[in-house]
Amino acid sequence: MHILITGGAGFIGSHTADALLNRGDRVRVLDSLEPPAHRGSPPEYMSSDIEFIKGDVRDRAVMSRALDGVDAVIHLAAYQDYLPDFSRFFHVNSVGTALLYELIVERRYPIHKIVIASSQAVYGEGPYNCPDHGRIWPDGRTLEQLEHGQWDILCPSCDAPLHPVPADESMVNPGNSYAISKHTQEHIGFTLGRRYQIPTTALRYSIVQGPRQSFSNAYSGACRIFCLRMHFGQPPLVYEDGGQLRDYVNINDVVPANLLTLDHPGTDGEVYNVGGGKAVSVSKFAQVVINKFCKTEELEIPGKYRFGDTRHIISDISKLKRLGWKPEYTIHDSVQSYMMWLREQPDLKNFSLEADRTMESMQVVRQALKA
Question: Which CATH number fits the domain that encloses residue 215?
């Protein structure tokens, strides 16, 4: 097949491109190479066998050129950050996806399959169980709760502590601009895909970890942030109390999921969680990083929080596992490979310090009054 990967110079895209080339496919990459993830030119790890087009997914001429002659699209291009530039999430993610389908329909490109990269973020807080009131999908925590360091979510009916459970694909509750934009990408893809017979699958990635994850984008991604700090002799900075549960997945498990759903006709019109299958606290993940760097530092837990963050979110991956996929790699594998990749970078800088200052100045990160 001849496959277009939008955002293909990035972390997930480049690994997916390598796998496609290795099995004999032709690969074309469209990427805008925007900072902070990129530095204006294709990364050195990108294969010379890839046809590269520099451009924006919102540019009609560029997108038309990228779509011409390809059989399928893996649509990874997206704006992802933790800063409050709300409109940009929709300008890039929603509009770019709509234009993709618009051009396919308008110019009758014979696209056989589109795989859309969505996110676990669409679940927001995800589901919880209350001993007395059963399954609950709570709203996000209030500013008052966070200011007073009340990290855990209580039942809105009885104030009992809630137990987080894995979220399957049946319900979403997006709680920020990024999450809403990713969910609109799914809606655009499935609605227009059904109407115009363009087979479409959406993948809701959990927190993907591994080498090539840009160290210069230090606003999100526990592995890169913690590893970058440890590389420069600083302990991991953990928000809230470190008890937040997350679902981490290795890039070497994500790529097979991409290829499986690209090839499998039974995935048309379906959405799948792609996760690690295990809940891990942020503090435990940070401790794994410390151990891999053979350090003895204590975690830095100053009672700060990221406004709008979820307390717990874990993905139920049983639907994708029924197709024969399962995660094979652990958080230890992810940290080890990222640590080694960082050490190979010739111009590594401690971008985490600037990111911390930026987020605090914009009140993305705040200090609890009482923690």
Answer: 3.40.50.720
The parent domain of residue 174 ranges over: 2-367
User: What is the torsional sign of CA 153, 159, 163, 164?
Assistant: negative
Q: Helices in the chain by DSSP H: which ranges?
A: 11-22, 60-67, 86-89, 95-107, 143-147, 177-195, 222-231, 251-263, 282-292, 318-321, 331-343, 351-361
Domains contained in the chain, number: 1
Instruction: Check pLDDT > 80 for residue 228.
Output: yes
Question: pTM, whole model, 2 decimals?
Answer: 0.95
pLDDT digits (tens, 9 = 90+) for 272-282: 999 999 999 99
Phi-psi bin for 249: left (phi > 0), alpha (psi -120 to 50), beta? beta
Q: Which two tokens stand for residue 240?
A: 């809230």
Q: Is the pLDDT of residue 305 over 80?
A: yes
Q: What tokens does 334 get?
A: 């992810």
Length of the chain as a residue count: 371
